[in-house]
Amino acid sequence: MLESIEKIRKEAEEFLASAGGTAEQFRLTYLSKKGILNGLFEDFKKVDPAQKRAVGQQLNVLKNALEEIHASLQKETSSDTGKLPSEDLTLPVVPDSQGSLHPLSIVRRRIVEIFSRMGFNAEDGPEIEYDWYNFSALNFAENHPAREMQDTFFVEKADATRDDLLLRTHTSNVQIRLMDRKKPPVRSIMAGRVYRNEAISARAHCQFHQVEGLYVDKNVSFRDLKDTLLHFSKEMFGKDTQIRLRPSYFPFTEPSAEIDVTCFICGGSGCNICKHSGWVEIAGSGMVDPNVLANCGIDPEEYTGFAFGMGIERITMLKYGINDLRLFFENDQRFLKQFVGI
Ligand code: DAH
Which atom of ligand 1 is nearest to the CA of 286? Predict the structure, then answer.
């Protein structure tokens, strides 16, 4: 009898290890009324009285072991109930919905790529900036209105050791950082986020993105500026695109010009997007002011340069007919999904 008790205990342990059976199967086999354990207790009645004590002890040990195995089988099945009932790991993978680049990234990459092919290398600069790089070195007069609180987010006021710290209001700060570091020839394209203290609406936001371009070398002329931006416009908006330069003012360029392109929606015949003028504005530009070059230790007698800056949101809105700036920052899937595969 002792031998069969031992054999049953082993079998029961194998049942647990094989993980093939359920707690209920185990109960029916070993612990139910007609199960193996009860059968043993029946046999126990016929055991020789001299052996009863030893066999009885082993029988109890077996009973406890079987109950423990049953409990652990039950636990296993109950923790399984959270899982899918039948996971077939051989099924082919269902493709997850395809992500896409943000429309601003699509346009930024395209702009940078076009200028890279013209020999401009991509550069980067800080979004938290000193007044000097964002304003003073760019020839903003001390009392220029753009420095006032309504336009600029200040981070920390100046103290005896340093300048005002602020969130850059344009990417032009990278021009200065670049020319401080590198002497001409400099030909770079700089994309990034900028901040202005504006009320958020369909047409304005407190954060947006710009791309800045800078080319400084000997004999860089206004004609180079025009040709570069014409080539860019044809690449970006189509080969029939024309550009128009309107006189403008920026503290850091002289002369300065606003760049318009022929409306790529109506081809110049007039529509809602171009407000029936046939032209849309895409950038500010100009010849780098000699004061700016001098502020960076570059001799304006020896070198000249041109610069331009454009808003990525604006170009994206024009290109895709988007009418509300806020859409770019809301991450609404219904908006973003339209750019899959572009
Ligand atoms: N920084 C100007 C702005 O935020 C844009 C700009 C205009 C950049 C002319 C330039 C430039 O480099 O030459 O409105």
Answer: 13
Question: How close is the Cα of 211 to the center of ligand 1, in Å?
Answer: 9
Looking at residue 280, its pLDDT comes to: 93
Closest CA to 37 of 15, 1, 67, 63: 63
Q: Is the pLDDT of residue 80 over 70?
A: no
Distance of alpha carbon 70 from alpha carbon 30, whole angstroms: 9
Q: What is the pLDDT of residues 266-276, one digit of tens each?
A: 888 888 888 89
Range 103-339 has CATH code 3.30.930.10: yes
| Ligand 1 atom index nearest CA of 310 | 5
* Ligand 1 center to 320 CA (angstroms): 23
Ligand 1 close to Cβ of residue 285 (< 6 A): yes
Token pair in block for residue 160:
């005896």
Spatial separation of the C-alpha atoms in residues 115 and 121, rounded to whole Å: 8
Report CA(339)–ligand 1 centroid distance (Å). 29
Contact 191, 125 (CB under 8 A): no
Q: How far is the CA of 288 from the centre of ligand 1 (A)?
A: 11
Domain ranges of the chain: 2-78, 103-339
Q: What is the pTM of this model?
A: 0.73
